[in-house]
C-alpha cells in the first residue's frame, strides 16, 4: 500500500483516527458507501499516483462522481489535521545553512487565469519555494503563489528571510540581489573569468541536493503532471500534499 498511497498502513490508520476525532458529523462528507478508510486511501492514491478518477471508480466498483466526492471531502480534512506537521518559516534555524529553489507545480492552461502562466517554464501552474539543509534534509516548503511570479518575489512573500540571515542561504541565479550565496552572472561586457567559472561550478556541486529534494517531493505525482480538478482546489491540494509529505517523514 505504501507505493500507491505514500504512507504505511499504520500511518493511514492513524490519519483516519485523527480525521475521525477532529470532525463533526456535518464535516464528514466522505461517501458512506466507501467509508472513512477507503475514502482516505482513494484520496492518497489519487495524490500519490495522479490516478484518473474513472480508474479508481472501476477498482472500487463505484461511480466516478462517488470518487470525486471522496477526494473533495477528504482533501481539506487531511490538510487540517496534518497542518501541525508542516514547518513554518519562523521555525527555520538562523544558525543553519539552507539551499533554496523554486519549482512550478503545473496545471491545465486556464484561459481566464493568465496569472498562472510562467514565462520561464512556458506553461501554467503555481510556484512553491523549497528549502533544504546542506545534507539534503527537507526543511520547509512555502505556500503556493501564482506561476507568473519570479522566485525572488515568491521567497519574499513567504516571509522566510524576514528574521533570518540570508548569508546562510544559497540559491541559483534567480536569487541574485537577496544577499545570499549565488552563482555569478555573466556581465554583458565580458565573459566570465576562470575563477568565476570555478566558483559557479563549486556552487552547483553543492546545490544539486535541492534538485534531489524537489524530485522527492514530486514523487507525489499530482504535483508533477497537469492538475485536472477545478483550479479553485489546486492550492488546497498542494497544501494537503505538503502536509502528507512531512507527515510521512515524521
Automatic annotation (TrEMBL):
GO MF terms listed in the record are: endonuclease activity; metal ion binding
Source superkingdom: Bacteria
Q: Where is the DDE Tnp4 domain?
A: 100-245
Cofactor(s) in the UniProt record: a divalent metal cation
Domain Transposase Helix-turn-helix, first and last residues per copy: 34-82
Does the entry feature the keyword Nuclease, yes or no? yes
Q: Where is the signal peptide?
A: none
Query: Which keywords does this Swiss-Prot/TrEMBL entry list?
Result: Endonuclease, Hydrolase, Metal-binding, Nuclease
Name used for this protein in its record: DDE superfamily endonuclease
